[in-house]
Amino acid sequence: MNVSKKVSGIAPSLTLEITAKAKKMKAEGISVIGFGAGEPDFNTPQYIIDSAKKALDTGFTKYTPAAGTPELKKAICEKFLKDNGLTYEPNQIVVSSGAKSSLYHAICALVDEGDDVILPSPYWLTYPELVKLAGGNCIYVQTKRENGFKITAEELKQAVTPKTKCLILNSPNNPTGAIYTEKEIKEIAKVVEEAGIWVISDEIYEKLVYEGEKHYSIASVNEYLKEHTVIVNGMSKTYAMTGWRLGYLAAPLDVAKAVSSMQSHTTSNACSITQYASTTALTDAEGDKFIEKMQKVFDERRKLMIEELSDVEGIVCIKPLGAFYVFIDVSGLYGKTFEGTVINGSLSFADCALKKGVALIPGIAFGDDNCIRLSYAISIEDIKEGLSRLKAFIKELK
Predict the structure, then answer these.
(1) How confident is the model over 101-118, as pLDDT tens digits?
(2) How far is residue 387 from each of residues 236, 310, 353, measured CA to CA in Å?
(3) Integer CA distances (angstroms), 347 to 331, 372, 376, in order
(4) pLDDT digit string (tens) for 237-289?
(5) Nearest CA among 152, 215, 208 for reference residue 182
(6) How far, in Å, CA of 280 to CA of 168, rounded?
(7) In terms of Cα–Cα distance, which of 297, 321, 384, 382 is closest to 42?
(8) Which of 78, 294, 318, 348 is the most exposed, having the fewest neighbouring CB atoms within 10 Å of its CB?
(9) Does 16 have pLDDT greater than 80?
(10) What is the rounded distance in angstroms from the CA atom of residue 126 to the CA atom of residue 134?
């Protein structure tokens, strides 16, 4: 039996491929330090776990409305008002089984067959595949290292055509850790408004910012942007709830209704127990304490990684100000060999580094073959050991 053309065209995840190789090596007794983590290495806070237990004990185990419980949607509205200065009604919120699900439903609600979707590159590797599934065309805009891997208003303007339907904007960014300033967001917003296009704004890392930076949502620029933006967020990164699978979006009412209708046929409601616990996560004062603690730990690791990489010959490190990734340019090492293998791109660089017990994510997965991504969502000890191995590997290149 042949699978459909639409599904057969979806690329497998390189991050999962590298992770699988690393796990296989570990199972064989080989020591591997993995820099591929896309999730906080903190356990979910106890107050959230206790809330989930309460949901189970009180029988909160049935179907909920497809778009989410009224209590959780109210808590999300309060979060948007407190954190982003945005006012939404509960019927503009759709809760889903993870932010990835929210993204896919949002893209399907906005993008028709043949529509163009602008993706600043580097991008999170799932965006292109979701656009393809929806029948859209990806228009990649290669950002510049000197601009901190951020798309400029002028670059966006040049990319817009009559077929453009929307821009996918991710700040703080995966994989680069870049954060768009309020000024940059407003300049991009001006182009969006002039072009009459939509924005899908992925703000999943909004709480993980450093050095006094602040997250600024494009939906807060003016009423036009609010009415032409779908914000996607979730519980995974902020509350260390990756396995709980809960995302949400905020959108103009007609879009939210369309997403809710679609979701009622694809996944139905998100897990009832997760929704109950997420309501507690968003409303209990313990949440702010946990976020502050986690952010400080990540910042310490970020500083260590930047310091350790700053003097490594042949690589260039752009200081990240958000998320928990460092995106380094290793193209200065291309053309060199390791154990007879010529390194000619990020994939061969990562494959060779893995032989030295370091698992890295090749930048080609994110649209930039000059770079590799390292996550600092691992312990200080592992960061030190992993970077020591990476440095030793680079010194062996000929």
Answers:
(1) 999 999 999 999 999 999
(2) 26, 12, 11
(3) 11, 9, 20
(4) 999 999 999 999 999 999 999 999 999 999 999 999 999 999 999 999 999 99
(5) 215
(6) 30
(7) 297
(8) 78
(9) no
(10) 13
Q: Please, what is the Cα angle at 247 between 244 and 248, to 5 degrees?
A: 150
Phi, psi of 138 (to 5 degrees): -85, 125
User: Where do we find the tokens 């019927």?
Assistant: 91
pLDDT above 70 for 1 = no
For residue 333, count other CB atoms closer than 10 A to its CB: 17
Confidence band for 17, pLDDT divided at 50, 70 and 90: confident
Query: In terms of Cα–Cα distance, which of 104, 146, 174 is closest to 326?
Result: 174
Look at strands 229-234 and 247-250 and give their pairing. antiparallel
Strands 116-121 and 137-142: parallel
pLDDT of 376 strictly over 80 = yes
H-assigned helices in the chain? 5-8, 14-27, 46-57, 70-84, 99-110, 126-133, 153-159, 182-195, 223-227, 253-266, 272-283, 286-309, 346-355, 380-396
How high is the pLDDT of residue 5? 83
Q: How far apart, in whole angstroms, are the C-alpha atoms of residue 223 and residue 153?
A: 19
User: What pLDDT does residue 254 have?
Assistant: 98
- Contacts by 55-63, CB closer than 8 A, 24 or more apart: 55/272, 55/273, 55/276, 55/277, 56/273, 60/272, 60/273, 60/276, 61/272, 61/273, 62/272, 63/268, 63/269, 63/272
Token pair in block for residue 154? 């002028």
Average pLDDT, the chain: 96
Report the C-alpha gap between 107 and 127 in whole angstroms.
9
Furthest CA-CA distance within the chain:
64
Tell me how far apart the alpha carbons of residues 83 and 158 are, in angstroms, rounded to a whole number.
Answer: 32
Please indicate whether residue 81 or residue 9 has the higher confidence score (pLDDT): 81
Task: Give one DSSP letter per residue of 235-255, joined into a string.
Answer: STTTTT-GGG--EEEE--HHH
| Length, in residues, of the chain | 398
Residue burial 340-379, b: 16+ Cβ < 10 Å; e: rest: eeebebbbbbbbbbbebbbbbbbbbbbbbbbbbbbbbbbe
Report how far Cα 26 is from the mean position of its chain's Cα atoms.
27
Question: In this model, does residue 2 exceed pLDDT 90?
Answer: no
As a whole number, mean pLDDT of residues 30-41 equals 92
Distance between CA 281 and CA 48 in Å, rounded?
Answer: 6
